[in-house]
Amino acid sequence: MHTTILITGATGTVGQEVVKHLAMLDSDVRIRAGVHSVIKGENLKRLPDVEIVEMDFEDQDSLHAAFTHVDKVFLITPFEEDQVQMAKTLVDEAKRTGVKHIVRLSALGADAEPGIQLGRWHREIEKYIEDSGISYTFLRPASFMQNFVTYSDKSIKEEGRFYQSKGEGKVAYIDTRDIAAVAVEALIGEGHEGKIYELTGPEALSNDDVAQIISEVTGKQVAYVDVPVQEAKLVMKEQGVPEKLADALVELDEVYKAGYSNEVNDEVQYVTGKKPHSFKQFVADYKECFV
């Protein structure tokens, strides 16, 4: 009997990797990719056995259609002001339609006390899932390596620089392909119910380390420019980022700067049986994004 898995946020950095990993499996899994608009999901149509469904958080009918006959869900919500309510809406629909298991993409440090705002948002969602009665697995990854592609590729290409506010703090960056590998194992494997996996890469790096690795791998001299947090917040606001979200991102950078995200563990290898990608390998695989 087949298993239908819904991936919400399927066009996002992690979501699309989960769809790709599932599509490569030789198993009786039906993949349902939830997208905000069908146009954005065009690239996913090229993958075998992927069904694209449009999901509108304000349209109950679209959510019900997306969740109908779904067995398991990989739950991702966008980084928006109402992300907690969005997640609760999805969990409520999962409960109504009889979903058996939810794998939730959370964040490292979600259970820290008192923690930071971003962590508190994620923990509130986790608690809501726990209280729903649906079986769950929580993934709490460190900062993504792919963020250097998403947010810094243009300045690296054009200026040979990237701008952040992490000071000299080291971060155990993780490749989203490794997060996806853990997610897939949690979705189709056994024994992951009620588990929380804190996921890191194999090494903790400062942004000066990152700049050096990009320079070595690409042959292009790259430098890190440390930006004062308040200046970074001003730029975010000029770019239209809501103040509440800008404050949360500034607070996160302060955590990185203080070195609270520098611990490395072997959870990826424990779950998947494979070592996580190094940052050097990540840059080699995404080299065209930087030069």
From TrEMBL:
Which domain of life, per UniProt? Bacteria
Protein's UniProt keywords contain Oxidoreductase: yes
User: Keywords assigned by UniProt?
Assistant: Oxidoreductase
UniProt enzyme class: oxidoreductase
Task: Please list the residue ranges annotated as the NmrA-like domain.
Answer: 2-261
Name the SUPFAM superfamilies on file. Answer: NAD(P)-binding Rossmann-fold domains
Recorded GO molecular functions are: NAD(P)H dehydrogenase (quinone) activity
- Say yes or no: keyword Magnesium present: no
Checking InterPro entries in the record gives: Ergot_Alk_Oxidoreductase (IPR051604), NAD(P)-bd_dom_sf (IPR036291), NmrA-like (IPR008030)
Q: What is its EC number?
A: 1.6.5.2
Q: What is this protein called?
A: SDR family oxidoreductase
